[in-house]
Amino acid sequence: MDYNLLNVPLRTSKPIPLGETxxxxxxxxxxxxxxAFKSDIEEIDQLRNDVLSIEPNNDGLALLKRYYVQLSSISxxxxxxxxxxxxxxxxxxxxxxxVALKSLYFERINIAYNIAATYSIIGLNEPRxxxxxxxxxxxxxxxxxxxxxxxxxLVEQKPKELTLPLDLSVNIMKTxxxxxxxxxxxxxxxxxxSNNLKDSIISRLAIQVxxxxxxxxxxxxxxxILKSEWIEHxxxxxxxxxxxxQFRLACVAVAASxxxxxxxxxxxxxxxxxxAFREAKYNLPSVSSDLESLSKVIKDSLRRxxxxxxxxxxxxxxxxxxxxxxxxASMVEPKPIVELTSxxxxxxxxxxxxxxxxxxxxxxxxxxxxxxxxxxxxxxxxHIKEPMEMLxxxxxxxxxENGLPALIDTIQKxxxxxxxxxEHCQILNERxxxxxxxxxxxxxSKLRHKSEQVLQNCVxxxxxxxxxxxxxxxxxxxxxxxxxxxxxxxxxVRKSIQALEGYLKQAHDGDQVIWNDFEQLKxxxxxxxxxxxxxxxxxxxxxxxxxxxxxxxxxxxxELRANxxxxxxxxxxxxxxxxxxxxxxxxxxxxxxVVSHYKKLQKNNINTITTESFEEVFRRQVSxxxxxxxxxxxxxxxxxxxxxxxxxxxxQFNQLRxxxxxxxxxxxxxxxxxxxxxxxxxxxxxxxxxLGFYNDFTGKANxxxxxxxxxxxxxxxxxxxxxxxxxTIFEQGKSPQKKQQQDQAPDQPKSEVKPPxxxxxxxxxxxxxxxxx
Length: 773
Description:
By secondary structure, this protein is mainly alpha-helical. Helices cover 71% and strands 2% of the residues.
């Protein structure tokens, strides 16, 4: 059939192992068994395969709608990223892709698009030679426009991390929605013509057709992938109906004996037709024929009008600016598709069978439980572990500032190594000593280098894409090579890379601080962790002579010793306490509470699930640690008194010591060993945190690299498509559509236009429908 309207071709895909992937997903992540959903899995898998080969009719439309409603339902139960969906683009000169995105949302967009495209195909296939056919076609195009507006909303509301292909861009959706609306208005106009409505009415309908096409054209110019034939088709239609509207008002003017206005409007219409002919290159044969028919009628009428006005009427011909504008009459609007705008309501109609995976727990519930698990761990660290460790660090600092326990060890044990020094050496060896630290530093260095390499790969990939784009721009010229600038297209991923580079630099600076601390501690730690550490330490720590203390001073020293021992005891108790709380936190699973609360929400008909809906569950969960937090508070209160007592005893000691000789060399040596041990603990703690940071960072860097790869592959596909289009234009010198026109038989008759009939009140009778006017 020779159509003078356009339909949107269906996007295509290929089969995917949806059923098998769903089985694996449910078994691994849902705490439910896939066997309970066997029939659901088989049905959704078959449904997807069926929509890949639909016929563009009402049965195919019903199948697409059913799949979309089911997709919308299960998207509330499944993670968006559980598998890839490959889709081919069909708007360009040839099929492109596939673009495979790991997103259920992407699948929904494509199915919604095909619903809109199917409406356009059905509308085009309606026999528009009858009034009933025109009415149906008009309705279908309105539904197509409404469906494309729904796709537009999906595109505009897409997740930020989802990068859609260009043929699913906002501008494409706006263009298609307006194009379908223009074609619906054209069908209404054609029915008005066939019903011989007044010229004034037909004129208003025609100018609205032109306006809709103009709105579609303004958006089409912003699209990089639409075929030139489509853009010229839309432009020709815009001009055609603009001229037709002027012609119809010319008919109204001559009927009212306003011959000057008639002539003015015919001249305007003729100029518009000439513009359309100049700008037309690749129009469909039927569109060119329509334009030629209209132009012939206008030219004939213009010659007659000029002759009559010059010889008979002699009326002044007004300027175009003096003519009243044509008032539009819109008779169509985008009709919403309930399956797209309100899939939940469509689901409740029972038209699409039972809702699949009804009893499957929403993945959001699992994600909330996982998030609460992480929040619970952070809560324990923030309110229990870190405060308790900080209390211990404060005690160590107070002891170090007051020279303890080195001071009392120098007095009480002047000629042998103190027990605490020997204990520190033992702990060092148990924890791996210097070898452990070296492994830590090597692991961090490897992870840092790996992270740097991943980021460098990201940068190189973007540089490669930019270089290739610049090369193609030099090769084809910036006017033909109209791909978006690389820096602009990759702005989001570049921002992610820069943020990660900033974090990595900060981490590297922190690593250097830790390394410097380690270098300062290294000689002492090497000595303390050596196999013959006792001998080395005895050589390092000088002996001092025994000093007999006065009774009061001896009491103070003994109290200081007791307090130092109390600090060690507290440190041990706190380590045990922290480990106990960690075990408690591990055993306190929050998932059963979240699931129970979800079922409670369902019973109360609360279907909208958000994290805020479960905050009550989290508060109840962390209340299990209230007694532990009180225990930390009790330690804090008791420690304040202990700190005051230690400081007071040291002050009393300094007041009473007088001329008592305490070897400063021995005191300094013991203090250095104490500081080295505490420094070792700090380095180990910092390195442990560093390993955690780099492990997390590597995962994030790999995610960004995957985005860079997706961006690079997408840009290469778009570049290859654009280059093919450029070569097609240059090699053929014409589009395939134009070539098809020229290959038609030269003696193929053109549509004839009937001449105007006598004085019947109308200058002509549009009994050929769409053929002109």
